[in-house]
From TrEMBL, chain A:
The chain crosses the membrane at residues 33-55, 111-137, 149-166, 172-193, 205-225, 260-281, 323-344, 356-379, 391-409, 415-444, 465-490. It comes from the Bacteria. This is Tripartite tricarboxylate transporter TctA. The keyword Membrane applies. It comes from Alloyangia pacifica. Residues 20-440 form the DUF112 domain. It holds the Pfam family TctA. Keywords: Membrane, Plasmid, Transmembrane, Transmembrane helix.
TrEMBL record, chain B:
The keyword Transmembrane applies. This is Tricarboxylic transporter. Signal peptide: none annotated. Keywords: Membrane, Plasmid, Transmembrane, Transmembrane helix.
Length: 500, 143
């Protein structure tokens, strides 16, 4: 009952004209960014965070706009996957497997319709899950002490990408690199300047938002000349603009299964949408692929991963809001936004700022409806965008991110730091090192250290305290299992050794 | 081979980070002090980079087209843009920056100039006038 009352309160916040307008704008902009090849949700949210700052929005409204952009990107990502065979981001890769063959067969409208309904199913079920599970987890998380939080951060770093990442050494290295970057600046407890090399500019450390826009948006621009410039094929023909209603529901049971799987993957810290899409697709293939039609344009092969990745994005909001540990790359970026707005996500957020949390959840329900309306009848508009020339789009993306960062601080130094992070991001991507753990390290490093220090001052410097709480022990156990699993997979794949 | 080089570079960085952190003094009543956490992280980075050196991935595919010149040019344009933003004012520097980027991304000179002017003016109007965000307007030497 409590939950329903809170949710109604949330709707009262979400339907104020400003928030409603922001939600619709977010959905539209998100779909647009998601539909453009090469720009995924992380880039989308990273580019528009500074814009949210510039608009001087209330924290709740900013969060609503960015979450709608996030959901919108997840809906839009399928458009370039299906029409161009270019996934906008990692989770959309699975959608290309059956989506593009279907579009080639002249069934693009049907594929887009099925995937829109599947996205809606996944995202709505995940939002329902968020409504009912997040408050429960928040209640449980009140019992977490500093040592338990430390364990939780260790788990986030060990599991992020560990399951989906290419090489666990690289993923962990990326997380540790982020932690090292996080220790630049004045140490909050003692005021000691660390790794600043005498520069006053570095006393505040690296602003996560500047780092994120650099790592994702600027590196994308530099990377562009190598990765996207080669594809000469134009988009597949859309054919009939509107799919038939019956066709759209063809993959519905697959979408339901995919939603549940995706949601669970999303809640696990660090696993995120890629894992959700991957596991949903492979499970559906095992259940339904009797005639070997998967991979040649089977509707169920589109519905399952689309529902999976959208459900995972909703699920990923749960650990982000209740524990302050993001479950995916994009939620990591949103966490950076909350931290810069002086909002500390965690178990107390539901008690202290119910308007913010429930307003957000209510806005997500509305966003799903708006997105379904945008994505079924109006999909033609977004597909036409795919033929806009890159020389027009890319410079606009760059300029919006520069102006956004400049508007936060009015400091050219920050813009240079952003270019620096862009070069770092480019190098890391070249070496196939994932960027998300770097962001997570940079973002959570200070909290991780503070919790460690708090735990140690309780115990008077005895490291044993880290292993004394049962909650922490369970978390460490889970972490160890996940690590063994991912290293096991990596070792098996690497034998016989592929050294140069 | 690339992974081994990356591993070696990270190893050197983490050992130096460990070494630099040695000087940070512990405060009163703070058992951990400012040095221990960075040192723990640096040590972990060193171990992981050794792991990367011992078990590298196969070399990534070499890039198919020569992109280095354009990439260097792009970064140079971005850096010049930041340097010129305040002296030249926002509309002018953004027009120049956008036009150069459009050229690099394959637009013809006429299209690039037009895109630059359109983006420079419209972003200034949106951010400065509509959103009320003060941006430098005129070149500094006009006063």
């Amino acid at each position: 009952m409590d939950i329903l009352t809170s949710l109604i309160g949330g709707f009262a916040v979400a339907v104020t004209p400003l928030n409603l307008a922001l939600a619709v704008f977010g959905c539209f902009a998100g779909t647009l960014i998601g539909a453009l090849p090469g720009l995924g949700p992380v880039n989308g949210v990273a580019i528009l965070i500074p814009v949210a700052f510039a608009m001087k929005l209330e924290p709740g409204s900013a969060l609503i706009m960015l979450s709608c952009i996030y959901y919108g990107c997840m809906y839009g990502g399928r458009i370039s996957s299906i029409m161009l065979n270019i996934p906008g981001d990692e989770p959309a890769i699975m959608t290309t497997l059956d989506g593009y063959p279907m579009a080639r067969k002249g069934q693009a409208a049907k594929a887009l319709g099925i995937s829109a309904v599947a996205s809606f199913t996944g995202a709505t079920l995940a939002t329902l899950g968020l409504t009912f599970f997040a408050p429960l987890l928040a209640k449980a998380a009140i019992h977490f002490g500093p040592a338990d939080y430390f364990a939780l951060y260790v788990m986030a770093f060990a599991t992020i990408g560990g399951v989906t990442g290419v090489n666990p050494f690289k993923t962990l290295l990326a997380a540790v690199l982020g932690l090292l970057l996080a220790s630049v600046g004045l140490d909050p407890a003692t005021g000691t300047a660390r790794y600043t090399f005498g520069s006053y500019h570095l006393y505040d450390g690296f602003d996560p938002i500047v780092a994120i826009v650099g790592l994702f948006a600027v590196s994308e621009i530099i990377m562009y000349f190598e990765s996207h410039a080669t594809s000469g094929a134009g988009p597949a023909k859309l054919g009939r603009a509107l799919p038939r209603l019956r066709e759209v529901f063809e993959g519905f049971p697959a979408a339901l299964r995919g939603s549940v799987i995706g949601f669970v993957c999303g809640v696990l810290p660090g696993a995120g949408a890629s894992l959700g899409a991957f596991v949903s697709y492979s499970t559906e293939k095992q259940i339904s692929d009797k005639n070997g039609t998967f991979g040649t344009g089977d509707p169920r092969g589109i519905a399952a991963p689309e529902a999976g990745n959208n459900a995972a994005s909703g699920g990923a909001l749960i650990p982000m809001l209740t524990l302050g540990v993001p479950g995916s790359g994009t939620t990591a970026v949103m966490l950076a936004l909350l931290v810069s707005l002086n909002i500390q996500p965690g178990p107390l957020l539901f008690e202290r700022q119910p308007d913010l949390v429930w307003g957000l959840i209510a806005a997500l329900y509305l966003a799903n409806l708006v997105l379904l309306m945008l994505n079924v009848p109006m999909v033609g508009i977004f597909t036409r965008l795919l033929s806009l020339p890159q020389w027009l789009l890319m410079p606009i993306v760059v300029m919006v991110s520069f102006i956004g960062i400049y508007s936060i601080s009015h400091s050219s130094f920050d813009l240079f730091v952003m270019i620096g992070f862009g070069l770092l991001g480019y190098a890391l991507r070249k070496f196939e090192i994932s960027l998300v753990p770097v962001v997570l390290g940079l973002l959570l490093g200070a909290d991780m250290e503070n919790n460690l220090r708090r735990a140690l001052s309780i115990s008077g410097g005895d490291f044993g305290i880290l292993l004394q709480s049962p909650i922490a022990l369970v978390i460490y156990g889970f972490t160890a299992l996940m690590l063994l699993f991912s290293f096991g997979i990596a070792m098996r794949r690497q034998t016989p050794p592929l050294a140069d | 081979m690339i992974d081994r080089i990356v591993g070696a570079v990270v190893f050197v960085i983490s050992v130096s980070a460990f070494w630099v952190a040695r000087g940070y003094e512990a405060g009163f009543g703070d058992p951990l002090g400012p040095a221990v956490f960075p040192q723990m992280v640096a040590a972990l980075a060193a171990i992981l980079s050794l792991g990367l050196m011992l078990r590298p991935d196969p070399n990534p595919k070499t890039q198919s087209r020569p992109a280095l010149a354009r990439q260097v040019a792009t970064v140079t344009v971005l850096a010049c843009y930041v340097l010129l933003l305040e002296p030249l004012g926002f509309p002018l520097s953004t027009t120049l920056g956008t036009a150069c980027l459009a050229l690099l991304f394959g637009a013809g000179p006429a299209k690039a100039t037009l895109t630059g002017a359109a983006v420079g003016v419209s972003l200034f109007v949106i951010f400065d006038r509509v959103l009320g965000l003060p941006l430098p307007f005129a070149p500094a030497f006009f006063g």
